[in-house]
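Hi R.,

As promised, here are both runs. First protein below:
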Amino acid sequence: MLNETEVLKLLLPEFLIDHFEIVKFEEINKVVHLYFEEKNTIPKEFTSLTLQSKGFLPEITVDDFPLRGKSVKLHIKRRRWTDVKSGDIIQRDWNLIAKGTRMTQDFAEFLKKISRY
């Protein structure tokens, strides 16, 4: 039996489920809006630093695969941290959207493949 997280990974980009929390969802005019905030877990590459969460970067909105005939918009807020010792702002280097688009990598690759037929 699949648990809730495993089901979500079938429907949404896996990195979102692993590193972000769904904080809100709504349907407006046949468009599903899913709101994500990055979890407050320090990136592995920065575990040697003393970091303090300092809120979020501006939200980005990207298109993803339609669900049940409805458009899907992913609203994503990435977290930022401050290095307590140096005062530097730290953030993960996410590749959330396909270059030159406003859609997820998977969705852009899918559209590229079907346009060849």
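And here is the second one, sequence first, then its structure tokens:
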Amino acid sequence: MEAPEVLLDNSAAVYDYYLRHQQNRLRALVSYAVLARRYQPRISYAEGAKDQLNALMRSGRPVIYAINHLSENDPYTVAAAAWRSPLRRKIGRIRVLAKDELFTEPSQRAKVDMMGGIPVFRGKDHGLRAVNAAGQLMIDVAAGRLAAGDHLAIFPEGTCNDVDPATVQAVGSGIGHIAFRATKLGAPPVLVALAMSYGADARLASFHLRAPVLELPSRPAEIARFVKDELQQAVDAAIRAS
């Protein structure tokens, strides 16, 4: 299937394509390994979390990773951290929600596609009313990928936190709706909060992974609030370790 142009007016074709798109797993593994050598992140875990994550990777359950957002380099440093953690087992099956402008230039799009990107048309860029229908399609695709066994990485703050890196900013209900719809599809996702702190050198970022949460609240808004609390605890731990 030919890749459609990523435009808001073309969102139905865009999301039909990304519902079926498959990454090149070998290329993804090589790219993640290269990034891990370049950035060399330091990783810490909540008590018992590393063993729980290893078991989770073997279980086949879909996972949503909630990640704080500090800079445009975050996807690369997160990829490096994934390579150096139990998440390595799922490289090539981790989808990432990414703003639509990253899919505009062909060579950039090829990289984002290889990393598992799914485009998001943001209200701050196009207007809230304009993106409503596309947003519903994006949620359906994200939930569908989870139901198919993929994992999903989300920066739930929606934009880079240039206000206070130590404080998680507002988390929209989108992550809650994705988890809610995946559950309706018979694939209740596990939540893992993953936080980073850059300190003085982004190449040596400090990452912290919380223990997996196997059961989430039942309503989208409650899930979003829960995600914010989990992510804040992960951010606090990443800062302490940096």
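A quick note on the second one: The domain at 8-241 is CATH 3.40.1130.10 (Glycerol-3-phosphate (1)-acyltransferase). Let me know what you think.

Best,
J.
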